[in-house]
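Query structure, 298 tokens:
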């Protein structure tokens, strides 16, 4: 799930009574962003790496002569959109052999059971996210009791560990554990070749502290703050040329796509944008952690 959007900010200007009612509603259900199911044109990012996501939810297709790898399954409603994007690029949806995710939240993994059923793909998930995926979201530390965030429980075919490689037809992806947002949140890296030069690709899992996340005294996730610390260490250590992520909003996807259409050679190569994004998210985490710690002082 991504950061609060305009709808949340708009709450600040509402009257106190209405605000209380809306706060109650917000606890009962997490709204899905309409951008999540809005179609977006598929496009080649570099070499065998393609964007096949919607406006608000990012999906990546890595094509190989032995079949394809898909990152993220999104909501069940997105599966036909992903399929249409794959086919528009000239590939077969049924050739997807491996399904991966950014992290075990419904906006990235609810469609996994459906995609497995259609394609027969092997589902590979980071160890600490496996119980959440296989319970259909019920064991999530934050959203497990919210019915709108649950989805069909999905069997994981291969349990991944930090640093594991996923390989198919010459493609190699590395799974980096970047926990906190979920316990098994995963940042994917790979290399692409262009004009005889290799570039590093980073697909960020999520460094974001969602609304309502308890960073201090979280009985369901005692190590959450330390895990975010680890995530920022890992993200700062990764060499990044191509900056991508679980939501297009992380890396300004729409603006960069517009530049691509205007003929810019490689707008998604953005090492400075990557560094700035990680620094900004780390600052947001530290601010929230300090606020929660201060609130504990009598
Ligand atoms: Zn999320």
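Result returned for the query:
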């Amino acid at each position: 799930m991504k950061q609060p959007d305009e709808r949340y900010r708009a709450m600040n200007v509402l009257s106190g009574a209405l605000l209380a009612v809306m706060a109650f509603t917000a606890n009962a259900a997490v709204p899905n962003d309409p951008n999540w199911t809005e179609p977006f044109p598929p496009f080649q990012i570099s070499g065998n790496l393609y964007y096949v996501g919607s406006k608000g939810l990012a999906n990546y297709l890595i094509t190989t002569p032995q079949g394809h790898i898909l990152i993220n399954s999104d909501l069940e409603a997105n599966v036909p959109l992903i399929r249409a994007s794959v086919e528009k690029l000239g590939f077969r949806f049924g050739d997807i052999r491996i399904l991966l995710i950014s992290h075990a939240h419904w906006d990235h993994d609810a469609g996994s059971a459906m995609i497995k059923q259609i394609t027969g793909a092997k589902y590979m998930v980071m160890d600490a996210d496996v119980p959440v995926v296989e319970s259909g979201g019920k064991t999530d530390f934050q959203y497990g009791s919210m019915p709108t965030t649950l989805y069909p429980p999905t069997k994981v075919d291969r349990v991944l560990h930090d640093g594991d490689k996923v390989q198919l037809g010459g493609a190699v992806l590395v799974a980096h554990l970047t926990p906190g947002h979920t316990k098994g949140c995963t940042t994917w890296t790979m290399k692409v070749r262009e004009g005889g030069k290799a570039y590093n690709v980073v697909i960020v899992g999520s460094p974001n502290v969602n609304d309502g996340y308890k960073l201090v005294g979280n009985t369901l996730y005692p190590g959450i703050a330390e895990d975010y610390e680890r995530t920022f260490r890992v993200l700062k250590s990764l060499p990044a040329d191509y900056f991508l992520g679980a939501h297009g909003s992380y890396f300004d996807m729409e603006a960069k796509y517009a530049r691509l259409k205007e003929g810019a050679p490689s707008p998604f190569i953005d090492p400075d944008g990557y560094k700035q994004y990680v620094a900004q998210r780390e600052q947001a985490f530290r601010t929230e952690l300090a606020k929660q710690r201060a609130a504990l002082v009598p």
